[in-house]
Design brief:
The protein is an alpha/beta fold. It contains 42 helices and 15 strands. Keywords: ATP-binding, Ligase, Magnesium, Multifunctional enzyme, Nucleotide-binding, Nucleotidyltransferase, Transferase.
């Protein structure tokens, strides 16, 4: 008798043969055989396609039987069926934990149905994405309805102005679905991007205690996320991503219509227009939601033809290309060249450019828009046909990859068994045939994308105008004597050493074993590089620096292509490496930074803090919070890329010292904000939100305080971060998740996770070195303090040097209310009356201890001056300022407004504590010393200079120290 798996390809047949008896220990069940057309061969074929299907039957046979009894697998999965089936599960719900269980069991059943029909090709792409999207809508609406009623019982019903009539009315939440959910094109294993809104401000009525509408809907949103996203014993329903909301993770979880409209009108970015193209009301008050969508339409669709959209889409695609290079995602069918994202970009480019005029383009479904582009003659029929066929193929392949294990992935498999599964699902005899078809589709998509969106100068190279002499030199077509003569004539100051370095590179083992294409790229690149080096003042020295980078990219010659196709970037590379060995080392360690050299305008004009926040938001949107490793890698690249811009700007003179420190500090603050969000979300997914005394869940209640250079807005290129963690949660309460922990434990683990993310060495290095020794009681104290304990410590137990440190402290990340409460403690502590004589003596004693341990030894002071630690250096100024702050804040509380030395000096002058002239001279000396430290850092030099350096500044600082600290 023929076995049911005999018709399968050999590796799959062997696998099914080995597991069949364990899945069906009592033989093939009747409930399967009673299903029309459901033979053993059919089931074996389904199991061969998907581990998820097989494991669901093996582990939950009763649920699969119940599902098949309710609706035949041969029938489409319709929204009506899903709504009716949810009612079946909802009937078992009497509490929130039961709601979570019902949703997850509903998901298991529905995923089984959708994945079975898709992988068996009983459903086409249109049915699969519609069913998956309808399932998401049903889950969101079902959970929201139950939770809203429960919230109203606890806190009363929210009331406010009706968005249409303006009359007083009951308020309900509006849930916007973004991305593929909004377009009803959801993947079979996808996360969902949501935005929460409510019509208007107001308060709840008829509850135990009235709360404002925003608080009500934020709490409701938190519970809705947990209902869908939290992993329990039954799994999860959908991973929920809220980062597309205004201000990302730092924004309120729910906003009123007016707040949303104001944000998009005043601050909306191009990428947010792109995201809003697919926005749809997926749950909640549909009528009110339509009012909201109508109000946002002018932001998305401009009345005029908006060709600026091309540039923003190019920027987004460039960012994705960098990500593909960084992660090696060429096998990603969504993000790689010729992938799904490029088709989406082509279609949405036309929507953003012409959607305001051609209303037919104001639709969400990609295939519908493609047909409209053909009808409007905006794209040729052949292009539309090829894009449509490629999109259907790629999306079906995406579902094949995801349906095998119910796993969110777009990466092509590299093992034989998975390749055989995919080939079977896609209808090919073997993996090679499937791969060839995929390659043809991707090539056509990449061509159309390049023709429509890519930049005009992508194919330009500098090879045509390059002097042949450099090529002859690199390819050894001239002897050593003539090569040295050529290099000397073109300015190489150490031609013999440079020639020897080039010979060593040619003899490098990696070069000797390079494939033909890689060797060809190297032979094109090196002559161009040598010619560019001849244009700088120190070509031999610069060559030594740049060769570190060349050796780093020998196995990744795509970077050489990038420089060959962008001669301007090669010019910037050579100039920066000539100016700074520190930059040369950064580029060698992280070649991906070469992307930053493509645009000289942005390279020498780093973005302001708001733009930094926006840039990081865009980069991190595609990375799930639970993928901590990738989050950490991307944060490190973000930091390095933007610090490179700051360094380049300082070298070129477009940023003065004060601005350099501002930008370096902003980068750290933006990174810290995101790290707090990632760490908090990670813990919430495990343990729920910390509870407050009134029973509500808090969104954060945690803050990071920056001390030292971070607090003083004076970060340098290699500065560590002096941090203190505080929170205002109740340590005696616990979290509200399925695995609750005490709030105190939650916040301690939050602090530990933040330090881990910042401190850990990854392939891209360390994000920041963190110093926590300034927390209460130092290394022996708790990692995270309550605000109450922090304030008590400052009042009763802190040493004078800790109050000195507090003068330079400020809140840098986390909950605004917690930061505000910290600032009140700082102000109160600094304003305490002190005995100036004893205070001055303590500060002087501490300074002498530091100078003795960190300054230049006495016998070498005539030859070396340590800019920071020696007498007449930076620390003398800092200690003077800190002493004056502590001595006079009680009489001049306005002094606590600033945490940085420069403005504290100015404030001391304005208050009359020191003469304004002295304040200005101290400020000038301070800037001169710090500028030198910055410049030396870019040359990989320390803070020690010639013993005769800065004679005037040092003499003045000496005199001020004597006047302020010794003569009074």
């Amino acid at each position: 008798m023929s076995e049911p798996w005999n018709s399968l390809p050999p590796p799959l047949a062997d696998e099914i043969s080995a597991c069949w008896a364990s899945v069906f220990p009592d033989g093939f069940p009747e409930w399967f055989s009673n299903e029309e057309g459901m033979t053993e061969e059919t089931v074996a074929s389904a199991f061969a396609r998907s581990l998820f299907l097989r494991q669901t039957v093996e582990r939950h046979p009763e649920q699969v039987e119940s599902m098949m009894a309710s609706h035949s697998l041969a029938e489409p999965t319709t929204p009506e069926y899903l709504a009716q089936r949810w009612q079946h599960y909802l009937g078992t719900v009497n509490g929130e934990s039961e709601l979570h269980a019902a949703l997850r069991q509903f998901r298991r059943e529905t995923q089984f149905r959708i994945i079975w029909r898709d992988l068996m090709r009983w459903a086409d792409l249109a049915e699969t994405v519609a069913a998956t999207s309808a399932f998401a809508d049903t889950c969101i609406q079902g959970a929201l309805d139950w939770l809203y009623d429960d919230a109203c019982e606890q806190s009363g019903t929210p009331w406010g102005a009706d968005p249409v009539t303006g009359e007083d009315a009951i308020q309900k939440m509006v849930v916007l679905g973004m991305g593929k959910l909004g377009g009803r094109e959801l993947n079979v294993s996808s996360d969902i991007d949501l935005i929460f809104a409510f019509p208007s401000q107001g308060e709840t009525r008829d509850g135990r205690r009235s709360i404002d509408n925003q608080t009500f809907f934020i709490r409701l949103g938190q519970r809705l996320i947990q209902a869908l996203d939290q992993i329990t014993g039954d799994g999860f329903v959908f991973r929920v991503d809220m980062r597309l909301r205004p201000y990302g993770q730092s924004g309120a979880l729910a906003l009123s219509f007016a707040a949303l409209e104001a944000y998009y009108q005043d601050q909306g970015r191009d990428w947010e227009r792109y995201a809003m193209v697919k926005a749809r009301v997926v749950a909640g008050d549909q009528a009110a939601g339509q009012v909201l969508m109508d109000s946002l339409k002018p932001f998305v669709y401009r009345k005029y033809i908006d060709f600026s959209a091309f540039e923003s889409l190019r920027s987004m695609k460039s960012m994705i290309s960098r990500e593909v290079r960084r992660k090696g995602l060429e096998n990603n069918i969504k993000l790689g060249s010729g992938g799904i994202r490029e088709i989406e970009f082509v279609v949405q480019a036309f929507q953003l450019i012409r959607g305001g005029r051609d209303r037919e383009l104001q639709r969400r479904e990609l295939l519908v828009i493609l047909s409209e582009l053909e009808a409007l003659e905006l794209l040729p029929s052949q292009v539309v046909k090829e894009l449509r066929e490629a999109y259907v193929f790629l999306r079906n392949l995406e579902h094949a990859l995801q349906g095998m294990e119910d796993k969110q992935t777009q990466i092509l498999p590299d093992d034989e068994l998975s390749q055989a599964r995919v080939a079977l699902i896609m209808g090919f005899d073997c993996w090679q045939d499937c791969s060839d078809e995929l390659g043809a589709h991707r090539e056509r998509v990449a061509t159309h994308f390049a023709n429509i969106i890519a930049t005009e100068d992508e194919d330009q190279t500098a090879s045509a105008t390059l002097d042949e002499g450099w090529q002859e030199l690199w390819l050894e077509e001239i002897d050593e004597t003539h090569a040295l003569q050529w290099m000397e004539e073109h300015g190489y100051e150490a031609a013999s050493e440079s020639y020897r370095e080039l010979c060593n590179l040619r003899d490098n083992r990696t070069v000797r074993i390079m494939q033909t294409q890689g060797r060809k790229r190297l032979n094109q690149f090196m002559p161009m590089l040598l010619a560019a080096l001849a244009e700088v003042e120190n070509p031999s020295e610069t060559l030594s620096r740049v060769l570190q980078l060349v050796e780093a990219i020998l196995r990744r010659t795509a970077y050489m292509v990038l420089l060959l196709e962008n001669p301007g970037a090669c010019t910037q590379l050579v100039r920066l490496c000539s100016d700074s060995p520190w930059i040369a080392r950064q580029l060698a360690e992280t070649p991906l930074l070469l992307d930053e050299l493509l645009n000289a305008e942005s390279l020498y004009h780093p973005p302001a803090k708001e733009e930094l926040q926006d840039d990081l938001r865009q980069q991190m949107l595609r990375i799930p919070y639970e993928d901590l490793e990738e989050q950490m890698e991307s944060l490190r690249h973000f930091k390095k890329a933007h610090i490179l811009r700051v360094a380049a700007s300082e070298l070129k003179g477009t940023l003065p010292l004060m601005k350099v420190s501002d930008y370096l500090t902003w980068i750290a603050e933006v990174v810290l904000d995101h790290v707090v969000d990632v760490a908090f979300a990670n813990l919430v997914s495990r343990h729920g939100y910390p509870l407050r005394p009134d029973g509500s869940a808090c969104e954060m209640d945690f803050a990071i305080i920056g001390y030292g250079k971070l607090g003083g807005i004076e970060l340098g290129y290699t500065s560590d971060l002096d941090l203190v963690f505080v929170h205002k949660g109740d340590p005696d309460l616990s979290t509200d998740g399925d695995k609750p922990i005490d709030n105190a434990v939650f916040y301690t683990r939050l602090g530990q996770r933040i330090v881990h993310i910042l401190n850990t060495q990854t392939p891209s290095g360390q994000l920041y070195e963190v110093d926590m020794r300034l927390r209460p009681s130092g290394n022996s104290g708790l990692l995270v303090s309550t605000l109450q304990a922090f304030g008590k410590y400052q009042k009763h137990d802190a040493w004078t040097w800790e109050h000195q440190a507090l003068a330079r402290a400020r809140g840098v990340a986390g909950c605004p209310e917690t930061l505000e409460a910290f600032e009140a403690i700082r102000h109160e502590t600094l304003c305490e009356p002190r005995d100036r004589t004893s205070l001055r003596q303590e500060v002087v004693n501490m300074r002498e201890k530091m100078r003795a341990s960190l300054g230049t030894p006495e016998g070498r002071r005539d030859r070396i001056f340590h800019i920071k630690h020696d007498a007449g250096g930076i620390v003398d100024i800092e200690f003077m300022v800190q002493y004056l702050m502590l001595a006079w804040c009680s009489e001049h509380p306005e002094l606590t407004q600033w945490s940085d030395n420069i403005r504290q000096m100015e404030a001391l002058g304005h208050a009359g504590i020191i003469p304004v002239e002295d304040a200005e001279k101290l400020r000038a000396a301070y800037i001169a010393l710090r500028s030198t430290i910055h410049r030396r850092a870019l040359q990989n030099l320390n803070s020690q200079v010639d013993g005769e350096a800065f004679p005037e500044e040092r003499a003045y600082i000496h005199s001020m120290w004597k006047k302020v600290m010794l003569d009074r």
